[in-house]
Amino acid sequence: MPELVTSRAVFIFMLGIMSLIVVMALNSGCIQAGSGTGTLTGNVSIGPLCPVEPCTVPHDRLVAAYAARPITISTPAGMAVATVTADPETGYSVALKPGTYVIDIQHQGIGGGKELPVTVTIRSGETVRLDISIDTGIR
Asked: In angstroms, what CA-CA distances link 92 with 2, 124, 129, 130, 134?
């Protein structure tokens, strides 16, 4: 019987120590409760791509126009977290850890995204939609 009492005491002591370690890890930020990912997604429109309408652009030039304007996702402090290139047909989608991000593009000469930069908040398991319209300035 004395062994059973000693084993139970050791078990309770170890359980208390493990609980304390988990609480300390949660408070230090080593472990984030519910730290899954969320999704940032949207469509991107770029135009005009020709100075005169109607405008017929080969698919490879259209893809190149999107590739020349990657979307940058940064922390509010300015540290780049991800860069994604939108597809002309399907847009873009990127998984991100929960947090606040600044979304922007490289601003080139004339034109640009009037609504950018924009700040978004990503939550675990949620999808945030951000459609982006880029004016090339071609007239």
From this structure: 65, 19, 10, 10, 14
